[in-house]
Design brief:
Layout lengths: L4 H33 L6 H25 L8 H5 L3 H39 L5 H25 L15 H5 L1 H28 L4 H29 L7 H29 L1 H4 L12 E2 L2 E2 L23 H4 E3 L4 E4 L7 E3 L4 E3 L19 H12 L1
Antiparallel strand pairs: 1-2, 3-6, 4-5
Helix pairs in contact: 1-2, 1-9, 2-4, 2-9, 4-5, 4-7, 4-9, 5-7, 7-8, 8-9
Length: 381
Amino acid sequence: MSTNSHFNNEFRTETTALYAVGLTFILLRLGSRTQKLGLRRLSSDDWFMAQNIVWYTLLYVSLDKVIFGGGSNFMTDKETAELTPETRETRIAGSKWVMVSEESVVLTIWSCKACMLFIYRRLTQGLKQLKIVNAVTIYVSLGFIGTQIALFTNCRPFSGYWSVPASSYQCWSYYNYAIVEGCFNVSADLVLLVVGMPLLFKVRIPLQQKMILLAIFGMGMFVIAAAVLCKVYSLYPPLLSYTYTKWYFREASVSVYVTNIPVIYSLVREVFPALARWGYNTNKGSTGRSNGIGRNRTSTKDIGMKPFDRLGSTTDDMDDSLNTQSQEHIIQYKAPGPLTIQKDVTFSVQKDCFDDEDHEIGRMPHHDPAHHHSSAYASAR
């Protein structure tokens, strides 16, 4: 089956734009993380995203080759009858690129899933929800293994994937593989959303800040919709066409966006501090908490610093979220052990769920409020 010039031009314009945005997001993420933590302290999800540049780029190149390379063994009866030695060689090369695109899209999407699972594990470290995240991790891993098995066993012999004409229906349609991949892919995305939504609702931040996180989860819903449409255009006979390639790249690109936006948003908040305070009540003289932030004159005896709760009002990025008008004295920070902060002045605490992805949260020790209170009292005396 061939495509027309209008489709080809639209495809290249769209995929190039999506790829440029995705690659920019990845580079911004890695640059920000490297500048802040150093290359050696990058977390596992940072390295996953770094290697994802290879698969994402390979997907972009392979799909472009499929569309502009003269086709594949996905042919109509008329095209099969009109085959010449030259067009046959061209379609063999195109069929190999189809195989490369199938593998690269799997590696791109599953790398993004792995990054999200690393984030979930840090957010739930020490909480009962960690067991759920571990179960989801096992399911996603099994899904990846099952998808790989289906891809490499769907067409036998394996070289049939680039046979022209195709040696069997499975070798050009990828039918059985597409069903297996679609089931694992969509179900894994749904589970990730189901696990993530309760974490979002428990975050104590203003509605304006929470809406940004809801928008990210909304993009996750688009990823699921794109995955479904990929299979519609590659499995449903009346709609069989190369339109599926557009949805392949849309799904992969938005997956990359969703995985990297939380880190990039943290970077944007550093560049535009007003955005970090958006939605918080910062009027002087107010007491208690309002939308996750409070200003209160108090003594050291009255400060019972809570543990660095992943879903609470404190984070590991204290320099960004704790603004004071006088000197703070860090009494002790030695992992594992409590972090005691003594202060006698006005303070404001701000929490963002995905602040720099809370990369250090997973290593933050649980604190004993009683121990801290007694330490602060002893210091005050």
